[in-house]
Amino acid sequence: MTQISRLKQAEIANGNLINADDLDSEFNQLVTESNSQDTRLTSMESGNITLSGTKSFSGTVKADTLEERTPDAGVSIETVLLKDGSIRLAQVPGFVAGSNGEIGYDSTNHSYRLRVNGVSKYLIHEGNPVLYKHGITGPAPLYESSGAIRLKSGLRARNSTNQTDIELAADITLSLDSSGLNGLDTGTKAANTWYYVYLVKRNIDGTTGAVFSTVNEVSGGSITLPTGYDLKRQLPLAVRTDASSNIMPFYISTGWPYRPSIKYRVVILPVNQPPATGQPIVLDGGTASTYTDVSLANFVPPISTQALLRGGIYLISASGKFGYIRKKGSSIDEFVVQNLTGRTCTEYESEIVETDASQVIQYRMTDATSSMDINVAGYIVTEVT
């Protein structure tokens, strides 16, 4: 901004009078130049500024110095200047930082990586990202056949170390009859066995899939990842094979993905009849008059401590008797099955009953002439988060 001309200053210093019009003209010139400077500053602020060569800055750049002119448009920075060098940003799909000091954005995996001392490192948010570690979204898995389940496109989860998302871009069939990706992580299919479900990902190129494993990482151990895969996430589901190594048919009724309820789709015959093949019966004609243990471990996996039970009682010559079911270690009669007066038996009554950590409950009868059947209709996942 210019000052009043030296000539005018000299005249004032010599005591000479200055015409008011001249002062007004000088003032207007100052205003004009000030407005012009403001216009140039506004233009620089709203447009692009190119700095060529190396520039030195004596102070730091404040966090609020850079802002978006259009919401969600972002701020484009080609090079970040550091004290001892610079970092180039590369936005290329599938990009993996190749040179030390390079930052790369992988638009396939939605993650940034920084190359440090020859090793590619993740740049992650210290708080909770949109899908943080406990986040699972998308459709629930489906029973497909005696040897496989189907995982639907759009199923998405944060990986176990909270580094990135694993998302299925297409439906996949996860089979117990194959090994490796989209099959068993190791070994061969076995009878009467629990299998847990994991999403997996190869971070270098974003390829995703799934595996079955007998390893339940909630309680310890580690699955065998397919060759080249380095990310995983356990899903809240376990499937059970029967004596013929077939997956017990199931469906996820409610709750997915948080504490889902898994129901068995199998035949359950009425009380006081021989069980059907594959029927999930855990007590057949029990007559104990004091609380007695019943294990549900064949039909309730270690990732659950809540069983969906069907209990029924029948009597030989009496009626109006009761059967009780409770969690092992509890002192409360939690589930009452009653045979009404005038009836010789009752069909199944359903209830959710908590188990102990080993999937054990207890039952007792009020009369020695009465008997109880207990079937497991399904379970609620409580241990996978």
Write the layout of secondary structure elements.
Elements lengths: L5 H8 L6 H27 L32 E4 L2 E7 L11 E4 L4 E6 L2 E5 L12 E2 L4 E4 L2 E4 L4 E3 L6 E3 L4 E4 L7 E2 L9 E9 L4 E7 L17 E10 L9 E5 L6 E4 L16 E6 L5 E4 L10 E10 L6 E6 L7 E4 L10 E6 L5 E6 L4 E11 L5
Short summary:
It is built from two helices and 25 strands. With 385 residues, it is mainly β.
Q: What descriptors fit this protein?
A:
385 residues, mainly beta, 4 domains, 6-stranded antiparallel β-sheet, 5-stranded mixed β-sheet, 2 helices, 25 strands, elongated
Question: Could you describe the 3D structure shown?
Answer:
By secondary structure, the chain is mainly β. The protein has 2 helices and 25 strands. It is about 10% helix and about 35% strand. The protein is elongated and about 120 Å long. The two termini are about 65 Å apart.
Order of helices and strands: HHEEEEEEEEEEEEEEEEEEEEEEEEE
Query: Which residues sit in consecutive blocks of at least 5 with pLDDT less than 50?
Result: 41-46
How far is the N terminus from the C terminus? 65 Å
The largest β sheet comes out as: 6 strands, antiparallel
Strand content: 35-45%
Oligomeric state of the chains in view: single chain
What is the radius of gyration? 36 Å
- Helical fraction equals under 10%
Question: How many helical elements?
Answer: 2
Total count of domains: 4
Number of strands: 25
Query: Kindly state the mean pLDDT as a whole number?
Result: 80
Shape: elongated
Q: Which class do the helix and strand fractions yield?
A: mainly beta
